[in-house]
Amino acid sequence: MHRVDLDGEIALVTGAASGIGRAVAIELAAAGARVVVNDLDAARSKSDAVVAEIEKAGGSAIAIDADIGIEAEVDRLFDRIRERLGGLQILVNNAGIERNHPIDEMSLAAWQQVIDVNLTGQFLCARGAIREFLRRRGELPEGKARGKIVCMSSVHQTIPWAGHANYAASKGGVMLLVKSLAQELAAQRIRVNAVAPGAIRTPINRAAWTDETARAALLRLIPYGRIGAPEDVARAVLWLVSDASDYVTGATIVVDGGMSLYPSFATGAG
Ligand code: BGC
């Protein structure tokens, strides 16, 4: 059996105080990575709780807060990673938000906030990580990358979403950001991939799974018949940042219980 081993690797996970990011931080730490748990300052106590949970399980983590949508804060985040940990091999670009409105009621601020965090934030963190990876020059054994990036996309990188135009546009942008970076960086042995989750039980979509009627409507969109758990996504991320996927770059793993398979066509009618 191929054991996934991240021993000695340093991993930054953004938006790691809750939801998918939290599960990813815990999963990577369990595989031996030293994890930087990043989230907003306001989520500091939750980040500290994730660090404590990792340490209790025998893993290693530190919390560094930063708003990844702001360039100066991202620069500071990478400075602190360099000072405190001396390098970086893995970035999980996870932080993301929703600000949902019908388009005629969507303010520029609601548009901008979502693009700033979900798309510009992924660019800024990828740039910071890539600069860090490139500082590590020299020969690499076959089967090892200089650095690995996984971007959290969504099924809405391809499924249009009424009332969520800012969010869908950000994730469509993430899709081509990932492919373009993967193409640009392959020769430097930096791999860039994406995970596209469907409906996962996290704070971002709490209303969709706590309200009985909304939950029933959501389940009709999921052929596999259940709402996903953050760990379903974390395991896919773990594989993508490990050497087990060394020949994989520019790919998107869809983790959605079949949501993107046009479930309304499942009966063959039409
Ligand atoms: C969104 C969730 C939604 C899911 C499926 C995700 O990207 O953040 O709110 O439940 O897509 O529509």
Strand content: 5-15%
* Major beta sheet summary: 7 strands, parallel
The residue fraction in helices comes out at 40-55%
CATH homologous superfamily placement? NAD(P)-binding Rossmann-like Domain
Which CATH architecture would you pick?
3-Layer(aba) Sandwich
- Each distinct ligand: beta-D-glucopyranose
Task: Describe the protein in words.
- By secondary structure, this protein is of the alpha/beta class.
- The protein has one domain (10-198, 229-257): NAD(P)-binding Rossmann-like Domain (Rossmann fold), CATH 3.40.50.720.
- 42% of the residues lie in helices and 14% in strands.
- The protein has 8 helices and 7 strands.
- The chain has a 7-stranded parallel beta sheet with strand order 3-2-1-4-5-6-7, sandwiched between helices.
- Helix 1 crosses helix 8 (230-241) and helix 4 (108-135) packs parallel to helix 5 (165-185).
- The longest helix has 28 residues, at 108-135.
- It starts with 9 loop residues before the first strand and ends in a 15-residue tail after the last strand.
- The model has no long low-confidence stretch (mean pLDDT 97).
- The structure holds beta-D-glucopyranose (BGC).
- The site of beta-D-glucopyranose has 9 residues, from loops.
